[in-house]
Amino acid sequence: MSKSAVPVNLADKLAQFSELWSQKKVAVINDYEVKLAKLQGEFVWHTHDDTDELFLVISGRLTIQLRDVDVALAPGELFVVPRGVEHCPVAEEETAILLFEPAGTLNTGDTGGSMTRTAEILD
């Protein structure tokens, strides 16, 4: 059986790591990566000029701060930040999310800095 015929169990993948704000790649579809991350606290304000960014909350709660409004997400809810829109994710409690974005997208977008991480592959 080919590896592509094996389903990805998100709970199992989330159990493999504990680091916060560190994206883990769990699948690839065309030129896009499906990533998991655990968040708590406030990230950095940043923009992705060339791509939209999809956030899907698996557990916990996430607020996506935009300059003119906050978007509150509960488990099972998703939000797409349009390309070029400055945003800042905030999680008051530990929150697990799924991200869907083009391969190579930096988590800190145009901001860079000490919170920049390259997505690691989870087997």
UniProtKB/TrEMBL annotation:
InterPro entries: cNMP-bd_dom, Cupin_2, PKS_Associated_Protein, RmlC-like_jellyroll, RmlC_Cupin_sf. Gene3D superfamilies: Jelly Rolls (2.60.120.10). It comes from Streptomyces smyrnaeus. This is Cupin domain-containing protein. Pfam families: Cupin_2. It comes from the Bacteria. Residues 16-79 form the Cyclic nucleotide-binding domain.
